[in-house]
């Protein structure tokens, strides 16, 4: 018996289309921030990206259009947006470069755990709520930091709140990463390697 609510192999779904559109927005954001320095348009793009990030998951549930492709596209889009935004903001000196290095470094370390997971037949582990909270904070922080690049009172206020969200987001991002690494360690300790050609788990 198959689970009616399990992710399907469908590709052409509304949530997947929204995730693909978010991916196309990544190079556009970098062009707006670094090349033409159109901060207002870049800010609007981040707002639209945040809305579609919530909307694709919401539609996947209410339309019953959850898919394996969507489960990959959504976190990939989140990671690429985080990477693009920290590079763009660091390039414009809105944030220090150590922030731009710290966030991708966490993802790089976690990607290094994937071959270990595959020895146990897994391609990934379930996303923890701390990771979702971290992404939520960071996706709020970056538009505020972008808005905080001016000299007005509004820019100062945006900068303060932006850094508050950023500090929480960075801390939760690494906490979630360490928790994920601990889960991998536990899995390796309590399970046996899967024989070659023995298939894998989702």
TrEMBL record:
UniProt main location, coarse: membrane
Keywords, comma-separated and alphabetical: Lipid biosynthesis, Lipid metabolism, Membrane, Phospholipid biosynthesis, Phospholipid metabolism, Transferase, Transmembrane, Transmembrane helix
Pfam families in the record: CDP-OH_P_transf (PF01066)
Mode of membrane association: Multi-pass membrane protein
Keyword Cytoplasm included in the entry's annotation: no
Lineage: superkingdom: Bacteria
Residues spanning the membrane: 97-117, 129-148, 160-182
Subcellular location(s) per record: Membrane
Family to which the UniProt record says this protein belongs: Belongs to the CDP-alcohol phosphatidyltransferase class-I family.
Name the record gives this protein: CDP-alcohol phosphatidyltransferase family protein
Native organism: Nocardioides malaquae
